[in-house]
Amino acid sequence: MHNSLNVLITGATSGIGEALVNHYANENYRVTACGRNQEKLSQLQNITQLGLAFDVNNEKDIGLAAAQVDYIDILILNAGDCRYITNPMAFDSNLFEDIINTNLVSLGKLIKHFLPKVKKGGQVVFISSSATIVPFPQAEAYGASKAGMDYLANSLRLDLVDHQIDVTLVHPGFVRTPLTAVNHFNMPFIIDADDAAARIFNGIKARKAYLHFPKRLTLTLKFMSLLPRKVWQHIILKDTNSRETIK
């Protein structure tokens, strides 16, 4: 039984976040679900101890939400967005800024207010993306934000050693979520959100520093990253066809 352990999950009202809420609740953890969708948070209230409605870009609301939390054993930073730069010659700087703010800058606000709530011996989990293993077309905004998250997680891990708080960085491949539902390209080895949640849960429980899946995809990408640039660039541009990208 883990009913004395508190897990807080951002981006909890859809996709991987919602699947994580259900998985942790089924494992008898005390779940705090965070998201913008108040209606969905209300639907989850029968399996959560607390629902906190806020936008990750609004620090005032984050602070008010954090004030309602006594302590956290596992902090899962999962909230994020994905949109593409479809024309590099008409670079959408507003879209770029929005994605960087939502996926990366917001983490500073969340860490500021929620990390002090994490108990000694606790964990902080960053849900990043396997898109950071090699560059992909049209992913200038999304990939840059997730690459920044990777560095943040790996750096924070070093600074939290003295505080006895572990950091787990997660690189999922393609997962069936509302974000990937709009993709009109082949998504190899795609898995369901429930499958992703189970893998993440097990990785966190094992206190892994780094977790990537499905390995048929992530190991392929890691191998490609070792090839000469011209080789993997040719493979990616050929396989992505219309210059779409991974998420």
UniProtKB/TrEMBL annotation:
Q: Does the keyword Oxidoreductase apply?
A: yes
PANTHER family per UniProt: DEHYDROGENASE/REDUCTASE SDR FAMILY MEMBER 7B, DEHYDROGENASE_REDUCTASE SDR FAMILY MEMBER 7B
Q: Do the record's keywords include Translocase?
A: no
Task: State the InterPro entries in the record.
Answer: NAD(P)-bd_dom_sf, Sc_DH/Rdtase_CS, SDR_fam
Q: Which UniProt keywords apply?
A: Oxidoreductase
Identification of the protein by name: SDR family NAD(P)-dependent oxidoreductase
> What family does this chain come from, according to its entry?
Belongs to the short-chain dehydrogenases/reductases (SDR) family.
Task: Fetch the Pfam families from UniProt.
Answer: adh_short
